[in-house]
């Protein structure tokens, strides 16, 4: 098995309506490139997995705990385990890198979508 | 303390000659945006931390175990704990996202460099 995998070869998981995650799953963590369609919403949720991340392209409004920011490329975020967070993509959509430890094994329930070209790069 | 931090505000750590990492450190993992100057080399090394990553911009030649690839934006990689790897940046340099679990506490020894504009975005 190769250590390399191109983003376009990774099947998108439909984690929310209008939001798909392409995931590389390791032993200790999940690295997900998450594509949000324009205006897509990840309703308030939380998980025991720590989450760090960064916007790659586009913009979104992100609420983490009691803090709300409208963010774009190069903005990083740090979400401690169990802290509620909510994301709403901007009018051009958004692509972010989200990383989780431990891995998001709860995502195993999602049926991968059809292969398609990534929104980024 | 804010959950958000802009890449340009994160001080670069000089992890190799010509290679600097801007790190967001969590409880379970380190997320690093790593900037490689043109031709910069990370000599063969390994660590007990699992490492996943993706190229953001530019190109590099990456050897992981016995596999060598010349990679660019959107290529992901998965380096199991203790697997030796070597990276050489292309002629225009390279910026990658590297994530590690557990966190790279061995990086605490590096003195942060002067603040400067990030190579990406």
Plain-language structure description:
Two copies of one chain form a homodimer. The first copy, chain A, is globular, with a radius of gyration of 14 Å. The mean pLDDT of chain A is 97. By secondary structure, the first copy, chain A, is mainly beta. In chain A, strands 2, 3, 4, 5, 6, 7, 8 and 9 form an eight-stranded antiparallel beta sheet that branches. The first copy, chain A, is built from no helices and nine strands. In chain A, strand 6 (50-64) and strand 7 form a beta hairpin. Helices cover 0% and strands 56% of the residues of chain A. Chain A has strands at 4-6, 13-16, 19-25, 30-36, 41-45, 50-64, 67-71, 75-79, 85-101. Chain A binds chain B through residues 2-8, 10, 24, 26-29, 31, 33, 50, 52-54, 56-57, 62, 64-65, 67, 69, 71, 73-81, 83, 97, 99, 101-102, 118, 120-121, and chain B through 2-8, 10, 24, 26-29, 31, 33, 50, 52-54, 56-57, 62, 64-65, 67, 69, 71, 73-81, 83, 97, 99, 101-102, 118, 120-121. Strand 1 of chain A pairs antiparallel with strand 8 of chain B.
Strand content range of chain A: over 45%
Distance between the termini of chain A: 24 Å
**Chain pair forming the biggest interface:** A-B, 44 and 44 residues
Largest sheet of chain A: 8 strands, antiparallel
Can you count the beta strands of chain A? Answer: 9
Helix coverage percent of chain A: under 10%
Low-confidence stretches of chain A: none
Which of globular, elongated, flat, extended, rod-shaped describes the shape of chain A?
globular
Structural class of the secondary structure composition of chain A?
Answer: mainly beta
DSSP summary: helix tally of chain A: 0
Quaternary state of this entry equals: homodimer
Radius of gyration of chain A: 14 Å
Order of helices and strands of chain A: EEEEEEEEE
The mean pLDDT of chain A is 97
């Amino acid at each position: 098995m190769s250590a390399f995998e191109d983003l376009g070869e990774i099947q998108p998981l439909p984690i929310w309506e209008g939001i798909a995650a392409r995931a590389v799953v390791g032993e200790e963590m999940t690295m997900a490139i998450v594509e949000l369609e324009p205006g897509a919403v990840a309703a308030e949720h939380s998980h025991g997995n720590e989450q760090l991340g960064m916007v790659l392209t586009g913009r979104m409004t992100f609420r983490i705990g009691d803090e709300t920011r409208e963010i774009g490329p190069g903005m990083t975020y740090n979400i401690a385990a169990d802290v509620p967070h909510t994301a709403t993509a901007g009018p051009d959509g958004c692509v972010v890198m989200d990383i989780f430890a431990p891995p998001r094994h709860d995502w195993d329930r999602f049926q991968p979508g059809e292969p398609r070209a990534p929104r980024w790069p």
